[in-house]
Every structure is written in C-alpha cells, then in structure tokens.
Amino acid sequence: MLTATPTACTIASLLVNPDVQQGSAREAVPTLLGAIRRHLGMDVAFVSEFANGRRIFRYVDSPLEDAPHPGDSDPLETTHCKLVADGRLPGLIRNARQVPATDALFTRLPVGAQLSVPVILSDGTTYGAFCCFSRMPDASLSERDLAMVRVFADLAGQVIEKDLDTTQRHDEVRKRIADVLASGKLSSVFQPMYSLKERTVAGFECLSRFAAEPRQGPGFWFAEAAAVGMGAELELGALRRALPALAQLPKRLALSFNVSPQLLLDGGLQPELEGIAQRVVVEITEHETVKEYERLVTALAPLRKLGVRVAIDDAGAGYASFRHIVKLEPDIIKLDLSLTRDIDHDPARRALASALIRYARETKSEIIAEGVETQAELDTLLGLGITKAQGYFFGKPRPAREVLELIAKQPVMAKAVA
Fold first, then answer.
1. Are 40 and 113 in contact (CB under 8 A)?
2. Which of 204, 280, 300, 371 could disulfide-pair with 190, CB 3.0 to 4.6 Å?
3. Which residue positions in the chain have pLDDT lower than 50?
4. What is the pLDDT of residue 251?
5. How many domains does the chain have?
6. Assigned domain for 357 exists
7. CATH at residue 36
8. Residues contacting 277, CB < 8 A, separation 6+
9. What is the largest CA-CA distance in the chain?
C-alpha cells in the first residue's frame, strides 16, 4: 500500500521525467506503468484500448513470462476493464475469489487482486483502461491506492491523446503530400547560375513551387513531408517534374537539385539519373544533421562514379555545412546568401567568404556565390576571386518555358559584369 511520502515523491519524479513530459506514449506510458506496478507490488500493469469490440493490450509492464503482450486482444464485453469502465464492477478488488461475478472474467488472466480505472480523453470519450493486478489477493489495497492509479491513468491519457492528435495531424499531412504528388500542384522553376569568367549561363538550380493549401514556401512543404516520413518521396517527385527540362537545354548546361542526406541514404536517386548523371549536380542541404558520414560517403560513391557532381549548399549558414564540406569533399561549395548579402561593406562576411574561397582552391573545389542582388556585392565577390554566382541580380527563378529565352539574352546579362 502506498504511503504519503513515497506517493508524493513518485508523482513528483514522474512529472519532471522528460520521457513523461515530452516523450511519445511509446516512451511515457511504460514509464508510468513500471512506476505504479513496482510501487504497489503488483505482478502486471497495462493500458488497454477499447477498439472494434475488443480489448487490445497496448502497453504492458510485467516481469512474468506469461503476462499479456502488446497487441494481444480479447472480446471487449467479456473483460473486467469494460465492466469497470461501465460502472458494473468496482475498480478495487482485493480478493477476486470473493467476487463471484469475476469468475468468468479472470479465466485468461489469473487475477487475485486488481486496481482498474478507465482512461478518459479530454472530450469525454473512453480510450480504454489502466490496470494493475497481482495473482494473489492483497488485503492491504485501499481506495487511496485506487485514487493513485487514477492519477497515473490521467497522465497516461494525456500523452496518449497527444499521440492520437499527432497521428491525426500526420495523416492530414500525408494526405496533402499525396494530393500534391498526384496533381499538378507541384512544379519547378529554374534560377540561372552565371559564369563570371565566361559571362554566360553555366547552369540552373531547380526549385520547387507548390500551388496548394496551405500557401507556404517549399521549405515548409519539405519539412512537413520529412516529419511524416514522406520527405524522400516528395523530393523524388520534385526531381521527376524538373528533369524533362534537361533535354531542352544545351548539353553544356547542368541542372542542380537540392537533395537531403536521407534521400541519398535511401538509394532512390540513382535510378532517376541513369544516362544524364554528368549533367546533374546534387546540392546537399545544411538543414539536416548527418550522424554517420561514412554511410553518406558510401551512398554518394555510385552517383559520383556515374558523373554526378556534389555540392554543399548554404555554406557559412551554420555548423552542419562546415562538417559536410570536410567530410564529403564536395566538387562545389555554395556560399550562403547570409555571407554574400551586404558583403561589400561587412568585413566579417568578407573574411569568412575569403577563407572558404581559399579552402576551395586548396581542395580543388568550385565556389558559387548565392543570393547576389547588387552590383556592389558582385564587385566585392569578383575581387575575392569568385567565378560563378547566382541571385536576383542575374535572374529570378522562372518556369522552364522561359529558360531558353534567358539563354538567348546572355549578351544582355554579360553587361552586368563587363
């Protein structure tokens, strides 16, 4: 039986436990079950869900080998969990053998004593039950112990409901992503990368646009897709929509695609690039942490063998990009716009950009400056030794039908760097 001080300590420790505060139900509920089972000296603690006419054991804590397992189920109406939830059976039973109504209920689970309370969600619906039982009767159990189980059941209900809400939101996101992929709501635009030395367009970076609700930028859509396990699928969808433009461009021009480390590790990129790899650059973004660079290097090897060039995007925007540069030995390093913006009157930006340019020379990498918007920024970058750049100063992202027109106007663009 619980005493005042241990009970308060137990609750306090659980309330500050990060698994319970911030974790998913998969992390938090077993913590709760283990704490209450050991505290009460019971053999089994579990949370069940009432679904489709069955009691489904979702979470179980027990040292017994023959205890129920997560996923086990039985007909709901014949369970003590349902009877307790309906008020037809008391939540506290000290000796099941003295309660005739339980004879048929405990044939599968040899229960001597039990504490059971329904798990109620915030809208008043019953999710299932939070139960503890021992195989032997326990005369020491009290209403206070039952109240404590109710507290733990409420905590479990809160994290379970959070997971249910998350699952519902994820389902909604998956539906939106699937709709975008199945419709014409995902399209590509192309921003020119300009060779300052040759004064000509050297290639294009492919960027995605979404004509779907919510009206958000591509960063929002790709982040949402990654959060629900559809990141690689959306990236491949965007790639497939952009690749046909390659056939319309002069063969000397390449297309550059933003690619996450996860897509590279999944291995789905190589089949899409067969026969055109030498005209493709994959830009590995700064936004995703890489835990095992060896795996990523291994995943890049067959693409590089085909002729794909590797670029590190957003260099200088954060620590991850520098790790990418050192570990992946890129062919191209792209200076982030946070470095190029106002570089003409910011010594700190010039110093960092200059250091990256020197690093690129020593490692035989190519540097491309992103986000160039003014003549003064361009002049400063030229002075530092930049030979390729992109940004609104040269051209905004535009649909494929306008790309050929841009190439025809190269002499006009050349005047900007004359």
1. no
2. 204
3. 1-6, 8, 12, 16, 411-418
4. 87
5. 2
6. yes
7. 3.30.450.40
8. 303, 306, 307, 308
9. 98
